[in-house]
Amino acid sequence: MMRDDATISGKARPLFFASQKLDVVLSSYLQERVTQRGEAEATSAYRGLDPMSRLFLSPTGEGFKITPYGKDGQRRFLCRAILETYTKLFRYAELEGVTAMSVRRTVISRLYDRGADEDQIGLLLGISERSAVRELLSRPKPALSTLVDELI
Q1: How many domains does the chain fold into?
Q2: What confidence tier does 131 reach under pLDDT thresholds 50, 70, 90?
Q3: Which pLDDT belongs to residue 36?
């Protein structure tokens, strides 16, 4: 579970990493942190990590710099180092050409196909606005005549 103070929306949300290949790579990374950096302190820790620590750290053990951007009042942030970390995880899991954004769009598309609505998708991906979820899903917009052809 991602803590509310660790999300852009300010709401706690579940964190799912269901790919077996990614799980193997992530497990290896987390195990290295526990053994090399001695993070195993809390008994209720996630895989031996302090639950208040960041999931990904720089090679020096520091958290990544997160940069706000966008217009005043928008809660938009960018962290190139985390995006690069995701790219490395995908490459190590032998998922060639995959990016964080392509994964996000794929997840949204598959959740829609399974019947999820914008609120459910937003909860899973940490997106607070329904319109922002819809913007990430590129869906064809057929002509009305095509939509109603042999409708009944």
Answers
A1: 2
A2: confident
A3: 73
Q: What is the 3-state secondary structure (H, E, C) of the chain?
A: CECHHHCCCCCCECCCCCCHHHHHHHHHHHHHHHHHHCCCCCCCCECCECCCCCCCCCCCCCCCCCEEECCCCCCEEECHHHHHHHHHHHHHCCCCCCCHHHHHHHHHHHHHHCCCCHHHHHHHHCCCCHHHHHHHCCCCCCCHHHHHCCCC
pLDDT in tens, 41-91: 545 566 777 777 788 888 888 888 888 887 887 777 788 888 888 888 888
Angle at 49 between CA 45 and CA 53, to 5 degrees: 105
- Which domain, by its residues, includes 79? 20-97
Average pLDDT of every residue of the chain: 81
**Residue 112 shares a structural domain with residue 88:** no
